[in-house]
Design brief:
By secondary structure, the protein is α+β, with helices and mostly antiparallel strands. Helix content is 54%, strand content 13%.
Length: 85
């Protein structure tokens, strides 16, 4: 589990560095909610699944927001591509 946490921290750090450049290259940037509120991550995840034909996951099988999103993607018939299980 410790390696997963280190990987997550590194990934978030790299994403923060790249985010301005990624947004500048995007055709569209969607802001679902301008500030954090209860349930905003689940609403964001559901909107991403609704807009997708295929969902790419990095999921360890635990409970939480990722589990909810993977279940929702399966229920709505989306193709699931698991990079890590």
């Amino acid at each position: 589990m410790r390696n997963i946490r280190k990987f997550t921290v590194l990934l978030l750090f790299l994403l923060a560095l790249c985010l301005p450049a990624l947004c500048a290259q995007a055709d569209e940037v969607c802001v679902f909610e301008p500030v954090y509120s209860g349930g905003c991550m689940l609403r964001r995840n559901r909107a991403m699944v609704d807009a997708a034909r295929r969902v790419i996951t990095v999921y360890d099988g635990g409970e939480g927001g990722t589990a909810y999103t993977v279940r929702y993607a399966r229920q709505t018939g989306r193709q699931i591509v698991a990079l890590w299980q």
